[in-house]
Amino acid sequence: MSTFHHIPVLAEGVLEYLTFPEDRKVRMIDGTLGGGGHSSMLLEKYPQLELLGIDRDEMALENAAKKLSFAGERVRLCHGEYAAMKELALAAGWEKVDGILLDIGVSSPQIDLPERGFSWRHEGPLDMRMDQSSDVTAGRILNFSSENELCRIFREYGELRSAAKLARAVVEQRAEKFFGTTADLVALCDNTLGKSAPGKLPIPTLVFQALRIAVNRELEQLEAGLASAVELLTPGGRLAVISFHSLEDRIVKDFFRRESAGCICPPGLPVCCCGHQAALTLPLRFKVVSASKEELKLNPRAACAKLRIAEKVKNH
Question: How open is the CA angle 226-284-264, to the nearest 5 degrees?
Fold first, then answer.
């Protein structure tokens, strides 16, 4: 089994703002357990904390089980999607929890293993599945999706201006030979779109991001997971979300803003018609926690990470 060594990002911020009462037993869900880095620190800080750790990646769960073994029966691990955390929590006998952590996106171990196919810098199969039991791979999307669907994926998930041009090139190339490896896709990107301008993200980074999001339905997962989290939290419980790119962060920011508002009627209506009540408060207001200079020296991949915190309202 490959080693799943993962440096938890924004660990200081998580410890500072994802807090729990110390005078009673508390429960937490880590919906994207990964290597268990964040959860291990919280379990050490709070001896009364019980954890339900969820991940789609069975390799991550196996390694996290070792890392969290010191906590014994305080830890339960579950293979599944955090979008279904409410159902998974109920299956574990948990109706409410005091905290939820979501560290969105792909982890360093997944990126660094060529056989997982997440990185354009390593040659490997066009896989990109977080859940290896899924039958949807990046190769399947590239080789069988329509040109319109490919254009949508590249445009919406990779924010590529040349999405239509790249989609057309994919369809033309696969008519002669199917895409088999990450190197095949990188070569097409270079030949079709050229090199990125200095200071810009390499084009293959955006293309691989788009395919990874499509394979794992990441944005749909995030929207469903946020809604489930609000339902599961006890009054005063906190939700911490770490995102790594603008698409994710925009969803989190908009969700927090909407769920911390009272009326969400369109502007100009004389009276409120929506009946919406705020479910969340924002203890950090609109502050976003980013990596410190010290953390960036140790882990440059934390540069894009953003942590947002919301708290379930006391009277909801």
Answer: 55
Helix (H) or strand (E) holding 53: strand 49-55
Residue 64 burial by Cβ neighbours in a 10 Å radius (0-12, 13-18, 19+): buried
How far, in Å, CA of 103 to CA of 88, rounded? Answer: 18
Q: Which class for 148: exposed (0-12), middle (13-18), buried (19 or more C-beta within 10 A)?
A: exposed
> Tokens standing for 113?
């293993």
* Cβ density class 156-171: b for 16+ within 10 Å, e for less: ebbebebbbebbebbb
Number of H helices, E strands in the chain: 13, 7
- Cα four-point dihedral sign 113, 223, 85, 76: positive
CA distances from 157 to 67, 149, 153, 219 (A): 33, 12, 5, 9
Between CA 17 and CA 175 the distance in angstroms is 52
Give the distance, in angstroms, between the CA of residue 41 and the centroid of all CA atoms in the same chain: 20
The answer to whether 182 touches 117, Cβ cutoff 8 Å, is yes
pLDDT in tens, 252-295: 999 999 999 887 777 777 777 777 789 999 987 768 999 999 99
The pTM for the full model equals 0.91
**Sign (positive or negative) of CA dihedral 38, 40, 46, 52:** positive
Reported as a single tens digit per residue, the pLDDT across 295-312 is: 999 999 899 999 999 999
